[in-house]
Design brief:
By secondary structure, the chain is mainly alpha-helical. It has 5 helices and 2 strands. The protein is elongated. The relative contact order is 0.09.
Length: 221
Amino acid sequence: MSVRLARMESVRKLKTIEKESTGIICFIQRLAQCCQSVGTLVIIVSLCLVVIGIGIAKMVMGSLFFHACPAQPLIPIWLIVGAMVSFLYTSASQTSKVAGGEHNNDARYARVIFGVFVSLFTFLWLILGTVWIVQANQHMNTCSSQTLTTMASVEHSGGRNQTINVTSSTAPPSADCNSCDSRLFNFAFGILLTEWSLLVLMLIAGCLLCCSYCCLKIFVS
């Protein structure tokens, strides 16, 4: 639906540009500006769809495998809370825009302050999720290292050799040696890598914008 509305808006802008343009050069310039705005709109809509899809997936996986990770029971909670925070922030920001308007300074400041608090919470929650997932991985590696599988060759009376697995424990498994569902752990690990990658890309983009702005101010002055 959003893509269809964006397409209709693009057609309307093209017709307006064609009517208001007085020459081919002016038309090309206005067309380039329109394409830039449409491309920005498509990127924003695509990012919103990706964020919503990831949030729904986190909510579903955290709910389905809520008790499937005894090694670290906080991993499903990390997924569910992260999805709920993103949904609440999106709905609250859109509601404040509709209720307060775009040109209301008080509503704008409230959205900025709320966004700062949500960003700080999201960053701290990401750090906690990293710690919990790393702890679960270390716990499972420690438990799996207590059991070694060796290969033994047994010769039958017919002269044929058959290789069998002989499992020997180097240490008795501890009572708290719990596991975690591989589907939940792999999904949480993938979400963790994705969010850290997006954070790094956002920081790089912010640094590039700041450098571009500084260079522009230097050349203009």
